[in-house]
Amino acid sequence: MRDPNPPRGDDLGATEREILAHRAKKAEALRALGVNPYGNGHRPEHLSKDLRDRYGDAPADEIAKDPGAWSIAGRVLAVRPFGKAAFLKIRDAAGELQVWIKKDRVSERDFEIYKLLDIGDIVAAQGAATRTKTGELTLEATAFTILTKSMRPLPEKWHGLSDVEQRYRQRYLDLIATPGVRDTFVKRARTVSTIRRFLDGRGYLEVETPTLHKPEEAGGAAARPFETHHNALDLSLKLRIATELHLKRLVVGGFDRVYEIGRIWRNEGIDRRHNPEFTTIEFYEAYATAEDLMKLTEALFHALALEVAGAPVVTFQGQPIDFTPPYPRVSLVEVGARALGLSVEDALAGRGLAEALARAAARENESEDAWKLEQAAKRSPGEAIAAAFEVFGEPQLPKDRPAFVVDFPLETSPLSRRRDADPRLVDRFELFAGGMECANAFSELNDPADQRARFEAQVKARASGDEEAMPYDEDFVRALEHGMPPTAGEGIGIDRVTMILTDSASIRDVILFPLLKTRD
RNA sequence: GGGCGCAUAGCUCAACUGGCAGAGCAAUGGACUCUUAAUCCAUAGGUUGAAGGUUCGAUUCCUUCUGCGCUCACCA
Question: Is the peptide bond before A328 cis (omega within 30 degrees of 0)?
Answer without folding.
Answer: no
